[in-house]
Design brief:
Order of helices and strands of chain A: EEHHEEEE
Helix content of chain A: 10-25%
Distance between the termini of chain B: 15 Å
Number of helices of chain B: 3
CATH superfamily of chain B: Cytidine Deaminase, domain 2
Number of strands of chain A: 6
Mean pLDDT of chain B: 97
CATH architecture of chain A: Roll
Largest sheet of chain B: 7 strands, mixed, barrel
Distance between the termini of chain A: 45 Å
CATH architecture of chain B: 3-Layer(aba) Sandwich
Number of domains of chain A: 1
Largest interface: A-B, 23 and 43 residues
CATH topology of chain B: Cytidine Deaminase, domain 2
Strand content of chain A: 25-35%
Shape of chain B: globular
CATH topology of chain A: Ubiquitin-like (UB roll)
CATH superfamily of chain A: Beta-grasp domain
Oligomer: heterodimer
Structural class of chain A: alpha+beta
Low-confidence stretches of chain A: none
Radius of gyration of chain A: 13 Å
Shape of chain A: globular
Strand order of the largest sheet of chain A: 2-1-5-3-4
Radius of gyration of chain B: 14 Å
Number of domains of chain B: 1
């Protein structure tokens, strides 16, 4: 069973309107690379020009933020779910 | 295109702002998108405001909470259709901070003004465009 990547609403237009994309990978970084290989339009919405995840893009491996794991090198296995979640914030 | 929400849920959203006053409240709206571009809210999930450093004029929803809500919604065949927060003693209109921090294009941002502890006006704004062109458009709320 491939890794499932959950695509949030704002990014679905760039992922063929899909809410879930399946990828095969050993790490979260490979999974995201596979994702943008399948859907190249996603790249600029996920990554800045230096190739790093944009600051407001949160990536979770199951229930854990990859920032607090091994970031792109975080190991991923077939039963895992990767969730991409843009930040929600604001104020007056 | 409008945001359709049961009256009871709209009152729940407004009441949340009164409960957290003088601090901003925040939450997630879960429901369905329709093919015409409208949205129907089926549940309003109150969230914690992680901006404990400045809760009177800032809000932030924990990404961990968002992740859980996103996953559970999708498993139930539903979707995140928007978010809500309150403006204590401030108009129910998006601010420059609201726009800077908005990234969920296609979703509704619902804002309630809470004056002296009482919810006054609730407005909805649709986020349109990408990070370079994003802007809010006024959106009708249909409370049924």
């Amino acid at each position: 069973m491939p890794i499932k990547v959950l695509i949030p609403t704002p990014l679905r237009p760039y992922a063929g309107k899909q809410s879930i994309v399946e990828v095969s990978a050993q790490t979260v970084g490979e999974a995201l690379s596979s994702l943008v290989a399948q859907h190249p339009d996603l790249r600029k919405h996920l990554f800045s020009e230096d190739g790093k995840l944009r600051s407001f893009v949160n990536v979770y491996l199951n229930d854990e933020d990859i920032r607090y794991l091994a970031k792109d090198a975080t190991p991923a296995k077939e039963t895992d779910t990767i969730t991409i979640v843009p930040s929600v914030a604001g104020g007056v | 295109m409008a945001l359709t929400i049961p009256k009871a849920l709209l009152e729940q959203v407004r009441a949340h702002g009164e409960q957290t006053y003088p601090h901003e409240c925040c939450g997630v709206l879960v429901g369905q998108f329709d093919e015409a571009g409208g949205k129907t809210v089926e549940s309003a999930i109150a969230c914690g405001n992680t901006r404990t450093d400045s809760p009177a004029n800032r809000y932030h929803i924990s990404p961990a909470e968002l992740t859980r809500i996103q996953r559970e919604s999708m498993l139930a065949g539903r979707d995140i259709v928007g978010f809500y927060h309150s403006h204590p003693d401030w108009p129910a209109k998006w601010s420059s901070t609201d726009l800077d921090e908005a990234h969920w294009t296609g979703c509704s941002y619902v804002i309630t003004s809470v004056e002296k502890g009482k919810a006054v006006l609730t407005n909805s704004f649709l986020l349109v465009g990408d990070e370079q062109s994003k802007h809010f458009e006024d959106e009708d709320i249909e409370a049924k």
